[in-house]
Amino acid sequence: MISHLTIENFALIEKLSIDFSQGFTIITGETGAGKSILLGALGLVLGKRADLTSLKNKEEKCIVEAHFNLKPYGLQSFFERNDFDYDDDTIIRREILPSGKSRAFVNDSPVNVQDLQELGAFLIDIHSQHQTLSLSEEEFQFNIIDAIGANDELLSDYRQKLKTYKHSKSELSSLQENLLQTLKEHDYNVFLLDELVSANLKAGEQQELEEIYEQLNNVEFIREHLDRSIALANEEQIGILGNLREMRHSLQKLSGFSEHFGQLSERLDSAAIELDDIASEMERAVRNLNQDPEQLESVNQKLQAIYNLQKKHGVQTVEELLEIQSELQSKTLSAEEIESRIEQLRSEISDLETQLDAVAEQIHIKREKAIPVLDKKLADILAQLGMPDARFQIQVVLSSDYHTNGKDDLQFLFAANKGSQFGSLKKVASGGEMSRIMLAVKSVLAEYSNLPTIIFDEIDTGVSGEIAHKMAEIMAGMSKKMQVFAITHLPQIAAKGDRHFKVYKSSKGDNTTSEIKLLDKERRIVEIAQMLSGSVVSDSAINHAKALLN
């Protein structure tokens, strides 16, 4: 249950702090006084979307903080599953910064809004007029039946299996498409692969082959220039090496006269050694030169094969061709692998269908048992609310389709009066009847759920008099098992609360704020009297208010 609420800088609220207690709490106030602002602030701590326009002062942050007593509700497993810090007295805080950024905290640990929404679903049910419309939605109707049938665990098991089933079906469909495409391309891919394999390609070989080809194709030219270079180095009279030896001999004689001459001599020694090595290399190169027409033709053919393959596949290197070869190998092997995986998936899907059918059957049986219980309870409550002839026609029929909550198709029909034809709620029930049906549903659900708090926002729309009195009694009865709030304009409901808060506006200069106060006995009499007679409170209204409270 919610025990405390603090709101700062939200809409018309500057700052307010409220303590709440167990039981039946009434909230009243004139239209526009700020009751919806309270719900909006509470919605923030339950994970609703934050809006920068909610800030009263755009220069300061908005803070909404709610304290919850969670001890009786067994939420420790949820906190552990989501890695939240658990405390019996849990604090949820939401902040909206002037920049528009929103932050959320559970017991001072930051959380994301989605996690906050999941937690909020376990804490408070805010019933608004909009939610009354959900009565006619199939998902909500199933939720009512499943709450009575205690189908939570079965539905969780079913949804987990359904998720796996849908994933497997999706994979199967994708693989079947891939197989068709693969089979169409298989023969061509095999042809391309054979071409590449027979080329016996190796990484880096193109550059090596091109160098060999250039050498073989220019043997005479290379020999001529190597011989000339060797001659220039070794010619007896004008050879470079001979002249270098003469230079070295002369400089060695001068090295004793100056350190500089000694350095020049050393440098010349190094040059002579290097040139001598170069000359030796050229001589070895000449010895290794061979005119080999057969090798030249072989290299040329290999290069032409590489060039043709590069042109065919639109690439520039042998490495790219090898990548294509690897891809083609995967494609030609994948057909068999895909077929094997398809057979495996078909078997898995068949097993999952068997499991889903079994769980769906259990869900269906529990729903069938729950429907008469729901029918009787709703009829009994609606009879108290002035609808003694209200009847429901609820049926679940197993279908062949896998829905998100089982395999049942649901028929949820209603007739308000004797002799009336059954029809869908949204077509045959009036606004006042929908409000009473929703209250009856919430009353029944209170018996089967462990929800700490419910807030009724003007559920009394379209009713008055004795019916309002009966609605108040039902809400008061619900408050024995859970914390109940009612935002109302009806004095009959307001008088049934254990505590009564009034929301009102106050003005100071140009500033208007919404505030809330707990009414004592005397002020509560006046408030209910005003609800009965308007702003001018008569003695009869006061007496009537006292009678309602008593």
TrEMBL record:
<keyword id="KW-0234">DNA repair</keyword>
<dbReference type="GO" id="GO:0043590">
    <property type="term" value="C:bacterial nucleoid"/>
</dbReference>
<protein>
    <recommendedName>
        <fullName>DNA repair protein RecN</fullName>
    </recommendedName>
</protein>
<dbReference type="GO" id="GO:0006310">
    <property type="term" value="P:DNA recombination"/>
</dbReference>
<dbReference type="GO" id="GO:0005524">
    <property type="term" value="F:ATP binding"/>
</dbReference>
<dbReference type="InterPro" id="IPR004604">
    <property type="entry name" value="DNA_recomb/repair_RecN"/>
</dbReference>
<dbReference type="InterPro" id="IPR027417">
    <property type="entry name" value="P-loop_NTPase"/>
</dbReference>
<feature type="domain" description="RecF/RecN/SMC N-terminal">
    <location>
        <begin position="1"/>
        <end position="509"/>
    </location>
</feature>
<keyword id="KW-0175">Coiled coil</keyword>
<keyword id="KW-0227">DNA damage</keyword>
<comment type="function">
    <text>May be involved in recombinational repair of damaged DNA.</text>
</comment>
<dbReference type="GO" id="GO:0006281">
    <property type="term" value="P:DNA repair"/>
</dbReference>
<dbReference type="GO" id="GO:0009432">
    <property type="term" value="P:SOS response"/>
</dbReference>
<keyword id="KW-0067">ATP-binding</keyword>
<feature type="coiled-coil region">
    <location>
        <begin position="328"/>
        <end position="369"/>
    </location>
</feature>
<dbReference type="InterPro" id="IPR003395">
    <property type="entry name" value="RecF/RecN/SMC_N"/>
</dbReference>
<keyword id="KW-0547">Nucleotide-binding</keyword>
<comment type="similarity">
    <text>Belongs to the RecN family.</text>
</comment>
<dbReference type="Pfam" id="PF02463">
    <property type="entry name" value="SMC_N"/>
</dbReference>
